[in-house]
Design a protein that fits this description.
This protein has 432 residues and is mainly alpha-helical. It contains 23 helices and no strands.
Length: 432
């Protein structure tokens, strides 16, 4: 008769061994699930059915629309317009381009919901301009990469939909609203540390803009920002579901990009669709594999055992939350965000929500911020690698420049963790 402890060892050991061997995460999850099911003598059809059920969800239909809308807007000139608008608002302070970089990322995050897309779109414009104006390459890269993490928690974010699925149906609208204040807080904190460093290094200011120039930049940027307004407004008002609002936002983004901005032609649309399809294929196959993995975690009662282990270490709420944050930060250094959401949520949810009584929305935003920091952290931070490639600096040099920004982000993380009102104020105010 199969032994539960042996099966748990097979599941986790196979997973970590394949992960160390750099096997793609989707195959890592699938192979470890199949090996464990084979040992337990479970029918393979049961594993396949769990994979199918994992992606057979109406709420997941929002993800392809979010991905496509973000791809359209990132290719269609929105990043340049957001940079211009940010420059009008805040470029006149010392180190103004760094402030513009953070603010533009804050705006762009509300459209794309992707840190990598943010670095790719904002960074390709801002990093070369900052270097040309006398900013150090490592500083320019550090500002771009860390500010891109705002896109993970500023709504809308398709990662919040993945968390909603993994957590058993947490309200997407409340998650969107819960990320607003933490995202803005993170942006303001990054702007503050950017300013301190800019003053110390005597980086330049930008010129003042006339009223007419400011109005033109605002008009151009507002059209793009309305994409996020459509998504968030539709969801929290109850007019649209998350899926419907994402679909409408995609149509709007298509119209604005191709018929108003007109920086790209309809001939480029097949390439945009192809890029969106590649991203979608990776996300959906990952969700399918993670569903089978999560099924076996539950079958082997690993979440309950993990809860007991953590509670045996300490009964202090503060110590447990600190321990969980450290664990998530370390995992974020070696794994990408989406698989970590799918793997860690079933394990930590019973501890944080069940044992500690944290609101699921609060835990979701804490989780997002932890894993968002991981995107900017070596050795596997995808946003960091993209930023270093654009800025033409080594990962080691960029990581040293990011130390003050890491400290700032961790301070915001601790505020989000231990001051629930930062997350819960807006959802409670607008949705009860």
């Amino acid at each position: 008769m199969p032994d539960i402890s042996t099966a748990s060892t097979i599941l986790l050991a196979t997973f970590f061994i394949l992960l160390v061997l750099r096997v793609p995460i989707t195959f890592t999850l699938a192979v470890s699930s199949i090996a464990t099911a084979w040992y337990l003598d479970l029918p393979m059809m049961a594993i396949i059915q769990r994979m199918v059920q994992g992606v057979k969800s109406f709420s997941l239909l929002a993800i392809p629309f979010f991905i496509l809308a973000g791809e359209i807007m990132s290719r269609g000139g929105i990043s340049r317009r957001l940079i211009g608008f940010s420059n009008v608002l805040i470029g006149r302070v010392r180190g103004g381009l760094a402030q513009v970089n953070v603010l533009a990322s804050m705006f762009f995050g509300g459209i794309s919901g992707s840190a990598v897309a943010d670095v790719s779109s904002i960074g390709t414009i801002m990093i070369p301009v900052m270097k040309q104006k006398g900013y150090d390459a490592d500083y320019s890269t550090a500002v771009t990469v860390t500010s891109a993490c705002q896109g993970i928690i500023i709504p809308p974010s398709h990662n919040m939909i993945i968390y909603s699925l993994a957590a058993g149906g947490v309200s997407v609208g409340r998650l969107f609203l819960g990320g607003f204040v933490p995202g803005v807080t993170l942006g303001l904190a990054l702007m503050a540390i950017s300013y301190v460093i800019a003053v110390k290094r005597n980086y330049p200011k930008e010129r003042k803009y006339s009223l007419k120039e400011g109005l033109v930049a605002s008009r151009d940027a507002v059209l793009g920002l309305l994409t996020a307004v459509i998504i968030i407004g539709g969801v929290i008002s109850g007019v649209f579901t998350a899926t419907e609002s994402a679909a409408i936002a995609t149509v709007y983004a298509f119209f604005i990009t191709f018929f108003v901005y007109r920086e790209i032609t309809l001939r480029t649309f097949p390439a945009i669709l192809l890029n969106a399809l590649k991203t979608l294929a990776m996300v959906m196959s990952l969700i399918a594999a993670a569903s089978a993995f999560g099924y076996l975690l539950a079958y082997l009662q690993i979440p309950a055992k993990a809860t007991q282990i953590l509670l045996n270490i300490t009964e202090s709420r503060v110590a447990l939350l600190l321990l969980i944050n450290v664990l998530l930060l370390l995992l974020g250094m070696i794994m990408d965000m989406a698989p970590l959401i799918l793997i860690t949520t079933p394990i930590l949810y019973p501890v944080v929500v069940g044992a500690l009584g944290m609101d699921p929305v609060h835990f979701g935003i804490m989780l997002m911020l932890n894993l968002g920091i991981g995107l900017a952290t070596p050795p596997v931070g995808s946003a960091m690698f993209v930023g270093c490639a654009i800025g033409k600096v080594s990962v080691e040099k960029a990581a040293r420049a990011m130390v003050p920004f890491y400290v700032t982000m961790v301070i915001v993380l601790l505020l989000v963790t231990f001051v629930p009102q930062i997350v819960m104020f807006v959802p409670t105010l607008l949705m009860g």
